[in-house]
Records
---
Amino acid sequence: MATLHVLFACILALLICSAAAAESYNKKNQVPAVFVFGDSLVDTGNNNYVHTIAKGNFPPYGRDFAGGRATGRFSNAKGVADYIAQVLGVKQLLPPYLDPSLDLQELLTGVCFASAGSGYDPRTPQKMNAIPMMTQLNMFKEYIKRINASVGPERTQEIISQSAYIIFMGSNDLTNTYPNRRLPVHRRILHRSYDQPSSRLPQGKTRTRTRPTPML
Ligand SMILES: *[C@@H]1O[C@H](CO)[C@@H](O)[C@H](O)[C@H]1NC(C)=O
């Protein structure tokens, strides 16, 4: 029994130490803000403000989110961009830059510029009127001007130089702009209806073979 107690105490001590270490690591390496560029895999709702068919603002998107509301994220709940901001210890959700209700504090800790349907090739976003990569970068330039006007050049410089930048796109270029049936990746995708929401599938069926739909 005594050995068990000692063992338990050791495990507890280890847990406390590692939690403290993780916290101090986060504090030491904390980035002031997170900026994400890309396509639907990281869009947290910019396409809600764009005239496009590539939307994530209807059920079952968002059904496991607070309130079960579809937010424009192409996910049942949080999206990859949100998790990146969370893991980096910045905030729980990374808001879309085009949301007009963002306050200064929200802007200073980072935003998402991604747009579903976008890609590196300028032709990729044209098909769905998504926000092209160049425009996402121009939005970032506009963002810099905005925060510079609010908090001044010194703080702006600090945020821009010390933050995390994540770019997550390319799959739409491969599937929509360069459809090459000989490419193994494209052949695999052609045989899947990968953007079918699971709740819309017939009972007892997990995969349907339908006409390929473009990736967003
Ligand atoms: C920020 O604003 C100042 C003027 O207040 C200007 O000189 C500077 O170039 C601006 N910096 C950026 C990055 O826009």
---
Amino acid sequence: MKFKKIILYKEPAVSEINIIQLRDFLEEKFSLSVQIAENVFSQFNEEQVRSVSSIRIKDIKNSFTRYDYNESEFEFEKKVSNDSSLMESTIKVENADEISQVFMYDGFELQKILRYLNKDEQTLHIIMTNRLTCTFDENDNRYHARAVICANPAIISTTGIIEAPAKPREYYFEAMALKAQGLGIESAKEKYKDKFLDYNDKRLTRIVEGYLLQVIFYNITGESFCEDIQCKLNNAHWQKDLLFSQIEINSLCKKHSEILKNLN
Ligand SMILES: [Zn+2]
């Protein structure tokens, strides 16, 4: 295996993610050392924070253009870089009147900003962040939320895990109906809570394990996803499938178990 080491960068704002459990999980699966590092953005200098400010997505229907941020937006970005829990004060997808109110970042551009981390070929950098990463899809000409950007450095967006795989259609209808009546959506959330992950969900560590595996398989084999829903490498488009493969099944399919065995 070309990698000797993985550096896992913490997202301290999401306390449900047990980083020690993730490190142990990886060290048990792969014969490489796993180092835990602080939130990568907290080390950013002013220029890097400016770069991050300029990759926000304001119009999901247009491919990437640099965002012309103002100074107060830059100041906020600087504060979020030091204290990522401030991201929780921004408007969530479920509360937004328009999607442009949500803080979204171009995932590939963010990856470019993080490339300075790559100093040798033997270290795989995996950044966990509560920034919502999105990528532009040429097929339907719009941005989509992404839970994971698989290359090196790889990015796992904890907000993307909540927002990218779809919730049940019935939930969206009920939430919309409640909103139309001026009511909160808590009752709909409660009704469907077994069908999708919510912010600060206790199941997040288990779910992140699957995304870590996708990142590592991608960097080793060039393939990240598995078609088999009974595999932790399954690329879930629905929250219920994500919960099924990561929580209920919680293992690799036969083919990928074999690949893993041969790697070590
Ligand atoms: Zn598989």
---
Amino acid sequence: MEKYDLFVIGSGPAGQRAAIKGAKLGKRVAIVEKREVVGGACINTGTIPSKTLREAVLAYTSIAGQRDRLPWARLETRPSSQQLLAGVDHVVSREIEVIEHQLRRNDVTVLSGEAAFVDAHTLEIRAEQGTRRVTAANIVIAVGTVVSYKNQVFGYTRAERATQYEIVLVVKVVFRDTVKNRDVWKEDALTVRTTYNVAAVGSEPARTETEGRKEVVQKLADQVVSRTIQGW
Ligand SMILES: Cc1cc2nc3c(=O)[nH]c(=O)nc-3n(C[C@H](O)[C@H](O)[C@H](O)COP(=O)(O)OP(=O)(O)OC[C@H]3O[C@@H](n4cnc5c(N)ncnc54)[C@H](O)[C@@H]3O)c2cc1C
């Protein structure tokens, strides 16, 4: 089993600093990251992507706003989202390289996988390539945070999922003779319903929301057409 003086879980800003500080103090240090690349939210999903995108937009608008003074810098078209995001990818990749280089230069061992505690000094690291165990005198938990999820509109938590839905359409229908200026057929609350399961239940197959919606609209159309004929 590999042994370290300091083992850091998570390669975001907190984990990187802890690992490098430990290495600079002469400790045998390793860091583990469960994502494909190091850097945490800061590099991959948060600070750097959002600020780079903002800077790219600001750089464009500051030039575009000075057409008269800087005709040579005039941009004929708006940059596409693809162009802006390509700029973000470029900066993110460069930042990942900087961090990898920094960790290598300081002799920090970088492991890939998801770490879980076996006991106070032992970790199991699960990766696609297999599972390994490491021990360390000190372990820093720098795993970042997870957004507390509460769907404000529908009131579900992340763990909750409805399994069966009912769609109810209530519509007012007026079928009017415009020559005689009178209603031939009228219904104030024509109601149609469809129930569907999002996972198969017994012999009832699973259906998607789109399928459920299409069905209820089709039912409504059938109702309107059949009643119209009756009305005539
Ligand atoms: C959209 C957005 C914009 C932001 N903008 C700014 C800004 O402008 N300025 C600023 O100061 N901050 C900003 N932040 C906040 C900043 O990104 C975070 O404060 C910072 O990344 C936290 O660092 P961390 O090391 O604590 O955690 P993280 O960066 O979240 O890193 C934790 C790492 O641990 C890994 N991990 C978790 N569990 C395990 C495990 N069991 N095994 C192995 N690895 C694991 C994760 O994959 C992750 O890579 C922003 C955040 C977001 C989301």
